[in-house]
Specification:
The protein has 428 residues and is α/β, with parallel strands linked by helices. It has helices at residues 35-41, 70-76, 96-103, 118-127, 143-152, 180-197, 219-222, 320-334, 359-371, 397-406, 424-427, and strands spanning 3-6, 12-13, 29-32, 85-90, 109-113, 135-138, 159-163, 200-206, 225-230, 237-245, 253-259, 262-265, 283-290, 293-305, 313-316, 341-347, 379-381, 384-385, 391-392, 411-413. The protein has 3 domains: 3-35, no CATH class; 64-265, P-loop containing nucleotide triphosphate hydrolases (Rossmann fold, 3-Layer(aba) Sandwich), CATH 3.40.50; 283-427, 2-Layer Sandwich (Ribosomal Protein S5, domain 2). Helices cover 25% and strands 25% of the residues.
Protein backbone atom coordinates (compact mmCIF):
# COMPACT_ATOMS: atom_id res chain seq x y z
CA UNK A 1 0.00 0.00 0.00
CA UNK A 2 1.33 3.45 -0.95
CA UNK A 3 1.33 6.14 1.74
CA UNK A 4 2.28 9.83 1.56
CA UNK A 5 3.64 11.83 4.52
CA UNK A 6 4.29 15.58 4.76
CA UNK A 7 7.93 16.30 5.64
CA UNK A 8 6.97 19.55 7.35
CA UNK A 9 4.11 18.62 9.69
CA UNK A 10 3.84 14.81 9.51
CA UNK A 11 0.36 14.75 7.89
CA UNK A 12 -0.39 11.38 6.30
CA UNK A 13 -2.60 10.56 3.32
CA UNK A 14 -3.33 7.64 1.03
CA UNK A 15 -3.16 9.97 -1.98
CA UNK A 16 -0.67 12.63 -3.04
CA UNK A 17 -1.41 16.36 -2.73
CA UNK A 18 0.54 19.23 -4.21
CA UNK A 19 -0.33 21.31 -1.16
CA UNK A 20 -0.43 19.77 2.31
CA UNK A 21 -4.00 20.06 3.69
CA UNK A 22 -2.65 20.45 7.24
CA UNK A 23 0.26 22.94 7.14
CA UNK A 24 -0.38 24.47 3.71
CA UNK A 25 3.16 23.89 2.39
CA UNK A 26 3.70 22.95 -1.26
CA UNK A 27 5.40 19.78 -2.59
CA UNK A 28 6.17 18.37 0.86
CA UNK A 29 4.31 15.03 0.63
CA UNK A 30 6.68 12.14 -0.08
CA UNK A 31 5.92 8.49 -0.73
CA UNK A 32 6.56 6.04 2.11
CA UNK A 33 6.24 2.30 2.56
CA UNK A 34 3.27 0.73 4.37
CA UNK A 35 3.09 2.29 7.84
CA UNK A 36 1.81 -0.84 9.53
CA UNK A 37 4.80 -2.91 8.42
CA UNK A 38 7.28 -0.15 9.26
CA UNK A 39 5.96 0.41 12.74
CA UNK A 40 5.88 -3.33 13.50
CA UNK A 41 9.47 -3.89 12.43
CA UNK A 42 10.69 -1.03 14.62
CA UNK A 43 8.51 -1.88 17.62
CA UNK A 44 10.49 -1.60 20.83
CA UNK A 45 10.56 -4.54 23.23
CA UNK A 46 8.74 -4.24 26.56
CA UNK A 47 10.93 -2.67 29.22
CA UNK A 48 10.02 -2.44 32.88
CA UNK A 49 10.59 0.93 34.51
CA UNK A 50 13.10 1.39 37.33
CA UNK A 51 11.60 2.84 40.53
CA UNK A 52 13.59 4.71 43.19
CA UNK A 53 12.28 6.28 46.43
CA UNK A 54 12.45 10.02 45.94
CA UNK A 55 13.88 10.64 49.42
CA UNK A 56 16.97 8.62 48.46
CA UNK A 57 17.75 10.94 45.54
CA UNK A 58 20.66 13.24 46.34
CA UNK A 59 19.86 16.93 46.29
CA UNK A 60 21.70 18.82 43.59
CA UNK A 61 24.26 21.00 45.33
CA UNK A 62 25.97 22.51 42.31
CA UNK A 63 25.30 26.24 42.28
CA UNK A 64 23.97 28.27 39.39
CA UNK A 65 26.33 29.30 36.63
CA UNK A 66 26.36 33.09 36.51
CA UNK A 67 27.09 34.86 33.25
CA UNK A 68 28.28 38.09 34.83
CA UNK A 69 25.57 40.07 32.99
CA UNK A 70 23.17 41.05 35.77
CA UNK A 71 20.21 41.78 33.47
CA UNK A 72 20.53 38.33 31.86
CA UNK A 73 21.01 36.49 35.15
CA UNK A 74 18.04 38.34 36.66
CA UNK A 75 15.68 36.97 34.01
CA UNK A 76 17.05 33.42 34.34
CA UNK A 77 16.52 33.51 38.11
CA UNK A 78 20.19 33.90 39.07
CA UNK A 79 22.02 32.08 36.28
CA UNK A 80 22.03 28.74 34.49
CA UNK A 81 21.09 25.51 36.28
CA UNK A 82 23.23 22.48 35.29
CA UNK A 83 21.05 20.30 33.08
CA UNK A 84 18.73 23.17 32.14
CA UNK A 85 17.54 23.53 28.54
CA UNK A 86 16.80 27.12 27.44
CA UNK A 87 15.03 28.23 24.26
CA UNK A 88 16.07 31.74 23.21
CA UNK A 89 13.76 33.26 20.60
CA UNK A 90 13.66 36.53 18.70
CA UNK A 91 13.32 38.04 15.26
CA UNK A 92 16.24 37.61 12.83
CA UNK A 93 18.86 40.32 13.33
CA UNK A 94 17.60 41.38 16.76
CA UNK A 95 20.91 40.44 18.45
CA UNK A 96 20.47 36.90 19.80
CA UNK A 97 23.96 35.74 18.81
CA UNK A 98 25.51 38.92 20.21
CA UNK A 99 23.71 38.38 23.52
CA UNK A 100 24.90 34.77 23.77
CA UNK A 101 28.52 35.61 22.96
CA UNK A 102 28.60 38.33 25.62
CA UNK A 103 26.77 36.23 28.20
CA UNK A 104 29.07 33.21 27.81
CA UNK A 105 32.39 35.04 27.57
CA UNK A 106 33.48 33.74 31.00
CA UNK A 107 31.93 30.24 30.70
CA UNK A 108 33.32 27.12 29.07
CA UNK A 109 31.14 26.83 25.99
CA UNK A 110 30.67 24.63 22.92
CA UNK A 111 29.10 26.73 20.15
CA UNK A 112 27.33 24.82 17.35
CA UNK A 113 26.45 27.12 14.45
CA UNK A 114 24.42 26.14 11.40
CA UNK A 115 23.94 29.67 10.10
CA UNK A 116 27.35 31.31 10.37
CA UNK A 117 30.87 30.14 9.61
CA UNK A 118 33.66 30.08 12.16
CA UNK A 119 35.16 33.19 10.55
CA UNK A 120 31.91 35.12 10.91
CA UNK A 121 31.51 34.19 14.57
CA UNK A 122 35.17 35.04 15.20
CA UNK A 123 34.76 38.46 13.56
CA UNK A 124 31.78 39.25 15.79
CA UNK A 125 33.67 38.13 18.89
CA UNK A 126 36.66 40.31 17.94
CA UNK A 127 34.37 43.31 17.43
CA UNK A 128 32.88 42.72 20.88
CA UNK A 129 36.41 42.24 22.32
CA UNK A 130 35.52 38.88 23.85
CA UNK A 131 38.19 36.55 25.18
CA UNK A 132 37.81 33.27 23.26
CA UNK A 133 40.01 31.07 25.46
CA UNK A 134 36.95 29.12 26.73
CA UNK A 135 35.06 28.93 23.41
CA UNK A 136 34.87 25.80 21.27
CA UNK A 137 33.22 25.91 17.85
CA UNK A 138 31.73 23.48 15.33
CA UNK A 139 29.69 23.64 12.10
CA UNK A 140 28.66 19.95 12.23
CA UNK A 141 24.90 19.68 12.65
CA UNK A 142 24.12 15.98 13.13
CA UNK A 143 22.63 15.71 16.61
CA UNK A 144 24.05 12.23 17.26
CA UNK A 145 27.54 13.54 16.51
CA UNK A 146 27.00 16.58 18.71
CA UNK A 147 25.92 14.40 21.64
CA UNK A 148 28.78 11.89 21.19
CA UNK A 149 31.43 14.61 20.98
CA UNK A 150 29.94 16.48 23.95
CA UNK A 151 30.09 13.29 26.05
CA UNK A 152 33.82 12.99 25.39
CA UNK A 153 34.51 16.57 26.51
CA UNK A 154 31.76 17.12 29.11
CA UNK A 155 34.34 17.75 31.83
CA UNK A 156 35.67 20.70 29.81
CA UNK A 157 32.40 22.46 28.94
CA UNK A 158 29.53 23.90 30.99
CA UNK A 159 27.13 25.14 28.30
CA UNK A 160 26.26 24.01 24.76
CA UNK A 161 24.76 26.53 22.32
CA UNK A 162 22.78 25.37 19.27
CA UNK A 163 22.42 28.25 16.76
CA UNK A 164 19.85 27.53 15.53
CA UNK A 165 17.72 24.52 16.41
CA UNK A 166 16.08 24.63 12.95
CA UNK A 167 19.39 23.67 11.30
CA UNK A 168 20.18 20.56 13.37
CA UNK A 169 19.05 17.14 12.13
CA UNK A 170 19.07 13.48 13.16
CA UNK A 171 20.24 10.65 10.92
CA UNK A 172 17.61 8.31 12.39
CA UNK A 173 14.56 10.56 11.97
CA UNK A 174 12.69 10.84 8.69
CA UNK A 175 11.90 14.21 7.18
CA UNK A 176 13.77 17.33 6.16
CA UNK A 177 15.70 19.46 8.63
CA UNK A 178 13.46 22.05 10.36
CA UNK A 179 10.40 19.85 9.71
CA UNK A 180 8.18 18.95 12.62
CA UNK A 181 9.47 15.39 12.94
CA UNK A 182 13.12 16.49 12.93
CA UNK A 183 12.58 19.40 15.32
CA UNK A 184 10.67 17.35 17.87
CA UNK A 185 13.05 14.41 17.68
CA UNK A 186 16.23 16.51 17.85
CA UNK A 187 14.92 18.55 20.78
CA UNK A 188 13.98 15.40 22.73
CA UNK A 189 17.46 13.95 22.22
CA UNK A 190 19.15 17.15 23.39
CA UNK A 191 16.86 17.48 26.44
CA UNK A 192 17.55 13.87 27.51
CA UNK A 193 21.29 14.41 27.04
CA UNK A 194 21.25 17.62 29.11
CA UNK A 195 19.37 15.99 32.01
CA UNK A 196 21.55 12.88 32.16
CA UNK A 197 24.85 14.76 32.02
CA UNK A 198 24.05 18.00 33.91
CA UNK A 199 25.03 20.22 30.98
CA UNK A 200 23.09 23.40 30.25
CA UNK A 201 21.96 23.74 26.62
CA UNK A 202 20.79 26.91 24.88
CA UNK A 203 18.64 26.43 21.79
CA UNK A 204 18.28 29.50 19.58
CA UNK A 205 15.08 29.71 17.54
CA UNK A 206 13.67 32.27 15.14
CA UNK A 207 10.38 34.13 15.29
CA UNK A 208 8.03 33.97 12.31
CA UNK A 209 6.12 36.91 10.82
CA UNK A 210 3.16 35.91 12.99
CA UNK A 211 5.31 36.38 16.11
CA UNK A 212 5.57 32.69 17.05
CA UNK A 213 8.56 30.40 17.45
CA UNK A 214 9.49 29.03 14.04
CA UNK A 215 8.72 25.34 13.84
CA UNK A 216 6.31 23.43 16.08
CA UNK A 217 4.96 25.22 19.13
CA UNK A 218 5.61 22.03 21.12
CA UNK A 219 9.29 23.02 21.41
CA UNK A 220 8.30 25.28 24.28
CA UNK A 221 6.90 22.30 26.20
CA UNK A 222 10.15 20.32 25.97
CA UNK A 223 12.47 22.95 27.42
CA UNK A 224 12.84 24.35 30.95
CA UNK A 225 13.01 28.03 30.10
CA UNK A 226 11.79 30.16 27.17
CA UNK A 227 13.45 33.56 26.73
CA UNK A 228 12.03 36.15 24.34
CA UNK A 229 14.48 38.76 23.03
CA UNK A 230 12.49 41.62 21.57
CA UNK A 231 12.72 45.20 20.36
CA UNK A 232 12.39 47.25 17.22
CA UNK A 233 15.29 47.08 14.76
CA UNK A 234 15.06 50.85 14.33
CA UNK A 235 15.50 51.29 18.10
CA UNK A 236 18.65 50.70 20.13
CA UNK A 237 16.77 49.21 23.08
CA UNK A 238 16.25 45.49 23.59
CA UNK A 239 14.14 43.67 26.20
CA UNK A 240 14.50 40.08 27.34
CA UNK A 241 11.53 38.38 28.99
CA UNK A 242 10.61 34.87 30.10
CA UNK A 243 7.37 33.19 29.08
CA UNK A 244 8.32 29.97 30.91
CA UNK A 245 10.86 29.27 33.64
CA UNK A 246 10.89 26.11 35.74
CA UNK A 247 13.76 27.37 37.92
CA UNK A 248 12.78 31.01 38.36
CA UNK A 249 10.07 33.63 37.93
CA UNK A 250 8.41 34.64 34.69
CA UNK A 251 7.82 38.25 35.66
CA UNK A 252 11.35 39.65 35.42
CA UNK A 253 12.67 41.74 32.54
CA UNK A 254 16.16 42.60 31.34
CA UNK A 255 16.93 45.82 29.45
CA UNK A 256 19.82 46.37 27.04
CA UNK A 257 20.98 49.02 24.62
CA UNK A 258 22.58 47.96 21.34
CA UNK A 259 25.81 49.87 20.73
CA UNK A 260 28.79 49.45 18.40
CA UNK A 261 30.55 47.63 21.25
CA UNK A 262 27.64 45.22 21.71
CA UNK A 263 24.79 45.09 24.21
CA UNK A 264 25.01 47.44 27.18
CA UNK A 265 23.03 46.83 30.37
CA UNK A 266 20.47 49.50 31.31
CA UNK A 267 19.76 50.14 34.98
CA UNK A 268 18.17 53.61 34.78
CA UNK A 269 14.35 53.22 35.21
CA UNK A 270 13.79 56.47 33.29
CA UNK A 271 15.66 55.36 30.18
CA UNK A 272 12.44 55.31 28.10
CA UNK A 273 11.37 58.82 29.14
CA UNK A 274 12.40 61.44 26.60
CA UNK A 275 13.19 64.81 28.12
CA UNK A 276 11.31 67.77 26.69
CA UNK A 277 11.57 71.45 27.42
CA UNK A 278 7.80 71.89 27.49
CA UNK A 279 4.80 69.63 27.96
CA UNK A 280 2.77 68.71 24.88
CA UNK A 281 -0.86 67.54 24.58
CA UNK A 282 -1.32 63.78 24.34
CA UNK A 283 1.76 62.80 26.36
CA UNK A 284 1.63 60.91 29.69
CA UNK A 285 4.16 59.10 31.86
CA UNK A 286 3.16 55.72 33.30
CA UNK A 287 4.79 53.57 35.96
CA UNK A 288 4.56 49.78 35.98
CA UNK A 289 6.32 46.92 37.75
CA UNK A 290 8.20 44.38 35.63
CA UNK A 291 8.88 41.63 38.13
CA UNK A 292 10.22 43.42 41.19
CA UNK A 293 11.52 46.32 39.13
CA UNK A 294 9.67 49.64 38.68
CA UNK A 295 9.94 51.05 35.17
CA UNK A 296 8.58 54.24 33.63
CA UNK A 297 7.39 54.75 30.07
CA UNK A 298 6.06 57.59 27.98
CA UNK A 299 2.80 57.07 26.09
CA UNK A 300 1.88 59.46 23.29
CA UNK A 301 -1.62 59.62 21.83
CA UNK A 302 -2.71 61.59 18.78
CA UNK A 303 -6.45 62.18 18.26
CA UNK A 304 -7.52 63.91 15.01
CA UNK A 305 -10.89 64.23 13.21
CA UNK A 306 -11.40 61.47 10.68
CA UNK A 307 -12.56 61.66 7.07
CA UNK A 308 -13.07 57.90 6.85
CA UNK A 309 -16.35 56.02 7.38
CA UNK A 310 -14.49 53.72 9.77
CA UNK A 311 -12.03 55.66 12.00
CA UNK A 312 -8.44 54.42 12.13
CA UNK A 313 -6.91 52.87 15.24
CA UNK A 314 -3.11 52.52 15.08
CA UNK A 315 -1.39 51.08 18.16
CA UNK A 316 2.31 50.46 18.76
CA UNK A 317 3.80 49.21 22.03
CA UNK A 318 0.47 48.25 23.67
CA UNK A 319 -1.98 45.41 23.17
CA UNK A 320 -4.31 46.46 20.35
CA UNK A 321 -7.42 44.80 21.80
CA UNK A 322 -6.77 46.29 25.23
CA UNK A 323 -6.61 49.77 23.69
CA UNK A 324 -9.96 49.20 21.96
CA UNK A 325 -11.42 48.08 25.29
CA UNK A 326 -10.22 51.25 27.03
CA UNK A 327 -11.62 53.40 24.22
CA UNK A 328 -15.00 51.77 24.80
CA UNK A 329 -14.72 52.50 28.55
CA UNK A 330 -13.99 56.17 27.82
CA UNK A 331 -16.83 56.46 25.31
CA UNK A 332 -19.27 54.90 27.79
CA UNK A 333 -18.25 56.79 30.95
CA UNK A 334 -17.25 60.18 29.53
CA UNK A 335 -19.63 60.39 26.57
CA UNK A 336 -16.86 61.33 24.14
CA UNK A 337 -17.63 60.96 20.39
CA UNK A 338 -14.49 58.91 19.64
CA UNK A 339 -16.12 57.41 16.55
CA UNK A 340 -15.44 60.66 14.71
CA UNK A 341 -11.70 60.62 15.44
CA UNK A 342 -8.67 58.74 14.19
CA UNK A 343 -6.58 57.63 17.16
CA UNK A 344 -2.86 56.83 17.10
CA UNK A 345 -1.10 55.39 20.19
CA UNK A 346 2.65 54.87 20.61
CA UNK A 347 5.01 53.89 23.42
CA UNK A 348 8.26 55.83 23.09
CA UNK A 349 11.47 53.81 22.77
CA UNK A 350 10.28 51.02 20.49
CA UNK A 351 9.32 48.76 23.41
CA UNK A 352 6.12 46.95 24.37
CA UNK A 353 4.28 47.29 27.68
CA UNK A 354 2.81 43.99 28.88
CA UNK A 355 1.36 45.02 32.25
CA UNK A 356 -2.02 46.59 33.02
CA UNK A 357 -0.57 49.48 35.02
CA UNK A 358 -0.47 51.68 31.91
CA UNK A 359 -4.27 51.79 31.48
CA UNK A 360 -4.77 55.02 33.44
CA UNK A 361 -1.89 56.76 31.65
CA UNK A 362 -3.25 55.79 28.24
CA UNK A 363 -6.66 57.31 29.03
CA UNK A 364 -4.99 60.44 30.44
CA UNK A 365 -2.97 60.93 27.25
CA UNK A 366 -6.11 60.30 25.18
CA UNK A 367 -8.11 62.98 27.03
CA UNK A 368 -5.15 65.36 26.85
CA UNK A 369 -5.02 65.02 23.07
CA UNK A 370 -8.81 65.32 22.65
CA UNK A 371 -8.88 68.56 24.68
CA UNK A 372 -5.55 69.70 23.20
CA UNK A 373 -4.43 70.47 26.74
CA UNK A 374 -1.09 69.21 28.13
CA UNK A 375 -0.88 67.35 31.41
CA UNK A 376 0.85 69.16 34.24
CA UNK A 377 4.62 68.66 34.36
CA UNK A 378 5.85 65.95 36.71
CA UNK A 379 2.65 63.88 36.54
CA UNK A 380 2.79 60.09 36.85
CA UNK A 381 -0.13 57.71 36.21
CA UNK A 382 -0.36 54.23 37.75
CA UNK A 383 -3.47 52.10 37.59
CA UNK A 384 -5.56 49.44 35.88
CA UNK A 385 -8.95 50.46 34.49
CA UNK A 386 -11.92 48.09 34.71
CA UNK A 387 -14.82 47.76 32.30
CA UNK A 388 -17.02 49.91 34.55
CA UNK A 389 -14.45 52.71 34.58
CA UNK A 390 -13.12 52.03 38.05
CA UNK A 391 -9.40 52.43 38.85
CA UNK A 392 -7.89 49.25 40.28
CA UNK A 393 -4.71 48.69 42.24
CA UNK A 394 -1.83 47.22 40.24
CA UNK A 395 0.92 44.76 41.07
CA UNK A 396 3.60 46.31 43.34
CA UNK A 397 1.85 49.68 43.16
CA UNK A 398 3.30 50.94 46.44
CA UNK A 399 6.85 50.24 45.27
CA UNK A 400 6.25 52.03 41.97
CA UNK A 401 4.79 55.04 43.81
CA UNK A 402 7.78 55.23 46.16
CA UNK A 403 10.21 55.00 43.24
CA UNK A 404 8.28 57.70 41.42
CA UNK A 405 8.55 60.03 44.41
CA UNK A 406 12.27 59.32 44.67
CA UNK A 407 12.74 60.23 41.00
CA UNK A 408 11.01 63.57 41.46
CA UNK A 409 7.48 63.12 40.11
CA UNK A 410 5.38 65.86 41.73
CA UNK A 411 1.87 64.50 41.10
CA UNK A 412 1.21 60.77 41.23
CA UNK A 413 -2.26 59.58 40.23
CA UNK A 414 -3.23 56.02 41.19
CA UNK A 415 -6.04 54.03 42.81
CA UNK A 416 -5.21 55.84 46.09
CA UNK A 417 -6.48 59.22 44.88
CA UNK A 418 -8.61 58.42 41.81
CA UNK A 419 -11.56 56.03 41.99
CA UNK A 420 -12.86 56.16 38.39
CA UNK A 421 -12.07 57.66 35.00
CA UNK A 422 -14.71 60.38 35.44
CA UNK A 423 -12.42 62.07 37.95
CA UNK A 424 -9.85 62.60 35.19
CA UNK A 425 -12.02 65.45 33.87
CA UNK A 426 -10.93 67.65 36.78
CA UNK A 427 -7.26 66.77 36.27
CA UNK A 428 -7.02 67.56 32.57
Amino acid sequence: MTFFVCEECGFGSASWYGKCPDCGKWNTLTERSDFSKTSTSKKEALKKISITPLKKIKTQTKSRIKTGIFEFDRVLGGGFIPGEVILLTGEPGIGKSTLILQALKNIRCLYISGEESAEQVKNRADRLKINLDKFLFSNDLQVEGIIESSLEMKDNIDVIVIDSIQTVYSKDIEGAASGINQLKGVTKLLVNFAKKNNLAIILIGHITKEGEVAGPKTLEHFVDCVLNFEGEKVSNYRLIRTSKNRFGGTDEIGIFEMTQQGLKEITNPLIFIEEAKSSDPGKATVGIAEGKRPLFFEIQTLVVPTVLPVPRRVVKGLDYNKVLLLLAVVRKNLNLPLDSYDIYVNVIGGVSIKGTGADLGLIASLLSSVKNKPLSAGSLFIGEVGLLGEIRKTFFEEKVVLEGKRLGFKKIFSSNNIKNVKELRSII
